[in-house]
Specification:
By secondary structure, the protein is mainly α. Helices cover 75% and strands 1% of the residues. It has helices spanning 2-20, 25-35, 42-53, 62-83, 94-98, 100-118, 122-144, 150-175, 180-207, 210-213, 219-222, 228-232, 236-255, 263-274, and strands at residues 87-88, 91-92. α3 packs antiparallel against α14 and α4 (62-83) runs antiparallel to α6 (100-118). InterPro entries: Isoprenoid_synthase_dom_sf (IPR008949), Polyprenyl_synt (IPR000092), Polyprenyl_synt_CS (IPR033749). Its cofactor is Mg(2+). Belongs to the FPP/GGPP synthase family. It holds the Pfam family polyprenyl_synt.
């Protein structure tokens, strides 16, 4: 775990540095509240690990890792407004703490800082821009037409969750100056991990305790938002099997990459396994 902790600490230090540079002070307080309240930092960790798996140094991918975490947190601010969720990571959500207007401005501020970190590389900008288009389409689709079948749910999960995971991995490969095939293979791996993550999230929402989750459980049912369990009619155990299938597909994509075996590759494989058994 020390291996991962060093890389997460490196990302966290750079994240704090970026947020400390935000102006004015009121906006800085808001973006720090959103971003530094906790979080698993899964996406930035993927960025760093992919870069390292391809022979790059962790520092080569740090700014991209911070950037994708900022994009993710910006999206959570909007999710909480849409869902009227007043708790995030065990603390008041941005809109609950500051109001709707300041929360939206904080989301915009996070995106601005993120794109400043991507702007030096055209491929990085393209990867993140495509992910944000997918994310926006997913959010819009869910608002006007909730998924009514497993196929519709999977497409929504690919857009809302898988797309940012894909971008996180692609950014790591881009930071290592990988070829297009390798960027795509890592992107496919991470997208499937993201979908597995979302299915497991729905299972936890239906079965876990709010205190353990760090956010209100039962939100899907309360918001009348179909979760994977509801859409498919599957029992939680069966839904977990679907998540496992996505995890297996992620591992298959990872196996096509021409990269030496390393601690980074081992942790990427472990992540695909972990997302389907996590408890929060």
């Amino acid at each position: 775990m020390e291996y991962l902790e060093r890389r997460r600490d490196q990302v966290e230090d750079r994240l704090v540095e970026v947020l400390d540079g935000v102006e004015p002070g009121e906006l800085a307080d808001q973006v720090r509240h959103v971003t530094l309240a906790g979080g698993k930092r899964v996406r930035p960790t993927v960025t760093v690990l992919v870069c390292e798996a391809l022979g790059g140094e962790p520092t080569d991918a740090t700014d991209y890792a911070v950037g994708i975490e900022l994009v993710h947190n910006a999206s959570l601010v909007i999710d909480d407004i849409i869902d009227e969720s007043d708790v995030r990571r065990g603390t008041p959500s941005a809109w609950a703490e500051y109001g709707h207007g300041p929360a939206i401005i904080a989301s915009d501020g996070l995106l601005g800082e993120a794109f400043g970190l991507f702007s030096a590389d055209e491929r990085a900008m393209q990867a993140v821009s495509e992910a944000m288009v997918e994310l926006g389409e997913g959010e819009a689709t869910e608002l006007v037409a909730q998924p009514a079948s497993e196929d519709e749910y999977m497409e929504l999960a690919r857009r809302k969750t898988g797309a940012l995971f894909r971008a996180a991995a692609e950014l790591g490969a881009i930071a290592a100056d990988a070829d297009a095939y390798t960027v795509e293979a890592f992107g496919t791996y991470a997208e499937r991990v993201g979908v597995a993550f979302q299915i497991r999230d729905d299972v936890l929402d239906a079965t876990a305790d709010s205190e353990k989750l760090g956010k209100p459980a039962g939100q899907d049912a309360e918001m009348e938002r179909p979760s994977f369990v509801e859409v498919t009619g599957l029992a939680p155990e069966e839904a977990n099997e679907r998540a496992r299938a996505e995890s297996d597909a992620a591992l298959e994509a990872l196996s096509t990459v021409d990269a030496p075996d390393s601690q980074a590759m081992e942790y990427l494989r472990d992540l695909a396994e972990f997302v389907v058994v996590r408890e929060k």
